[in-house]
Design a protein that fits this description.
D-Maltodextrin-Binding Protein, domain 2, Arc Repressor Mutant, subunit A, alpha/beta, 7-stranded mixed sheet, two-stranded antiparallel sheet
Length: 301
């Protein structure tokens, strides 16, 4: 393709002003560069677009047939450029991935604030376990990932986001809840307890094992479930105990369906993180989303 948008922009300016000197001021070029670009356009099309009338250039019939399309193409290109560089709301599509607790409990508030500032933005949010999220980002299927556990994909950059407390919970009428009323649960009692855990590949599962195993060595007869939401409901039904994010169980703690189990374990926390490909170019919309998450320039450096 020999035509360029710059040539069409210059053609429009000459058609508007009637001289290459005046057109040069509109397009911020020298008069000689403007004349050269116009000549290149005519050579590329193998036609003359203007008739010279005195010192003025006047569109001929071929130039008039080109003018409408040239103006539309340049205006569309300007609109497209502004959609990527404008600081304000614009039409964009973002692809995000988040692990389950983040996607279900933390992101709704973030997305509400982001949508208020970028009402025309479209967001495609994928929710899965930490491994699913990391792999989606690694394959360029998601622009950003927000994860709850360690990331084992070496090609990704990991940015610490916020801390999340882990708590041991049970149904209020569970036997261990009654025992814990008298004294914090000791290691032997915890080892023998029926634990409900996430599946392999879950960041919550890996973090919980890292927190518990140094103290308990093993977990007795655990049940594995595919989501933290399922686990907390099974715990509330009295099927066992679990170690879960406080964010996840806050609602059930508040309405009495779950209770905290005092234990001899130390305080347990996990780090929530943002992951991305190091070569990722952050658009204004992505930067605005990260700002709503409380992350600033440190993620771009």
């Amino acid at each position: 393709m020999r035509l360029t948008l710059r040539q069409l922009q210059i053609f429009n300016a000459v058609a508007q002003t009637g001289t290459t000197t005046a057109a040069a001021e509109l397009v911020a070029l020298s008069q000689s560069a403007t004349s050269a670009a116009l000549k290149d356009l005519e050579n590329a099309l193998n036609v003359r677009l203007f008739d010279r009338v005195g010192k003025r250039l006047v569109l001929n019939e071929i130039g008039r047939s080109l003018q409408m399309d040239a103006r539309a193409l340049v205006e569309r290109a300007q609109d497209l450029e502004q959609s990527f560089t404008a600081a304000g709301p614009t039409t964009v599509k973002m692809q995000l991935a988040a692990s389950t607790t983040i996607g279900n409990y933390l992101l709704p508030k973030v997305l509400r604030s982001f949508h208020g500032a970028w009402p025309l933005a479209t967001i495609d949010l994928r929710i899965g376990n930490t491994l699913d999220v990391a792999q989606a980002v690694e394959r360029f299927e998601s622009d950003l990932g927000l994860i709850e556990g360690p990331c084992h994909v070496p090609t990704l950059r990991i940015i610490p986001w916020r801390d999340d407390d882990l708590v041991v919970v049970a149904a209020p009428d569970h036997e261990l809840a009654r025992v814990a009323c008298c004294a914090p649960l000791d290691l032997t009692t915890l080892r023998d307890a029926p634990w409900l855990l996430r599946e392999h590949g879950s960041g919550t599962r890996e973090t919980v094992e890292q927190a518990l195993m140094p103290h308990l060595n093993f977990l007795n007869g655990p049940m594995y479930l595919g989501s933290s939401e399922a686990i907390k409901n099974c715990v509330a039904a009295g099927l066992g105990i679990s170690c879960l994010s406080r964010i996840l169980v806050e609602d059930m703690l508040g309405d009495g369906r779950l209770c905290l189990l005092p234990t001899c374990l130390p305080l347990m926390t996990r780090k929530l993180s943002v992951v991305h490909r190091p070569e990722r170019i952050f658009s204004p919309a992505l930067r605005a989303f990260l700002a709503q998450c409380g992350l600033g320039a440190e993620i771009y450096s």
